[in-house]
Design brief:
Number of domains: 1
Shape: globular
Order of helices and strands: EHHHEHHHEHEEEHEE
CATH architecture: 3-Layer(aba) Sandwich
Number of helices: 8
CATH topology: Peroxisomal Thiolase, Chain A, domain 1
Largest sheet: 8 strands, mixed
Strand order of the largest sheet: 3-2-4-5-1-6-8-7
CATH superfamily: Thiolase/Chalcone synthase
Structural class: alpha+beta
């Protein structure tokens, strides 16, 4: 079992720009229409901003306010599918026998967004990029808990997905819309405390109508426990006094 404080959090999805919007969504969770909009990220210099993909912009928008300008914090980026838009575009170029852009290739690898974060924020500490199954979010929390256990004061965790191209319909079925959730975790902070535990699961995993990370946003908002079964694993989130 892991226990930690959620000192701050920030989420993004299309049309969900502030705490009021998320509070309303938590009261009545629903699938969000993804019209392709993306955060402006005006805090990033223009020359660097033009290299940010939509997924990278979503990550930066969610995580940026959680790290102070003078802080050096570990960064855990988690995404089950990663840069599907970039990789699909490159596959299309290969199919047309067109030359691949080295820049686009370099920015398509799974740890590219973590690297962009380190460069843009001047971070010199640990950064990790994780891709797992439907419980990628929990595995990112395990990674952050290990970093905190090594004595680091806080860690930033971001789980994010971009709605993939229609060609992936039937293959990627867990990203109904683009989203990100960023958390600032610590062991001794003043935020609400949570425990995350893992047990064996022998039942079928229910089909969720919204991404699991955003179900945790609702749990945070309500201070309510949350179960996440997946294959042989059952994760349990429990608010701690």
């Amino acid at each position: 079992m892991m226990e930690f404080a959620v000192d701050a959090w920030r989420a993004w999805a299309p049309g969900m720009e502030d705490d009021t919007a998320w509070a309303a969504w938590c009261a009545a969770p629903h699938a969000i229409v993804d019209n392709g909009e993306q955060p402006a990220c005006e805090f990033v210099p223009p020359m660097q901003r033009r290299r940010l993909s939509r997924l990278a912009r979503i990550v930066m928008h969610a995580a940026w306010p959680l790290c102070g300008d003078d802080e050096q914090l570990p960064f855990v980026f988690a995404s089950r599918h990663g840069e599907t838009t970039r990789t699909f575009a490159m596959l299309d170029e290969i199919g047309r026998n067109a030359p691949l852009s080295p820049t686009q290739f370099g920015l398509s690898v799974h740890n590219a967004i973590a690297g962009q974060w380190s460069i843009l924020r001047g971070q010199r500490g640990e950064s990790v990029a994780i891709a797992g199954e439907a419980d990628t979010f929990e595995h990112a929390i395990v990674e952050a808990a290990a970093l905190l256990g090594d004595g680091l004061p806080a860690a930033i965790v971001v789980v994010a997905e971009e709605r993939p191209a229609p060609a992936y319909d039937g293959h990627i079925d867990d990203v109904p819309f683009s989203y990100a959730l960023a958390l600032r975790l610590s062991l001794a902070g003043n935020g609400p405390r949570w425990r995350l535990s893992l047990a064996a699961n022998d039942g079928a995993a229910p089909v969720a109508g919204v991404p699991h990370a955003l179900r945790f946003v609702r749990a945070l908002h309500d201070g309510a426990p949350l179960d996440h079964p997946w294959k042989t694993r059952r994760w349990h989130w429990q608010p701690s006094a």
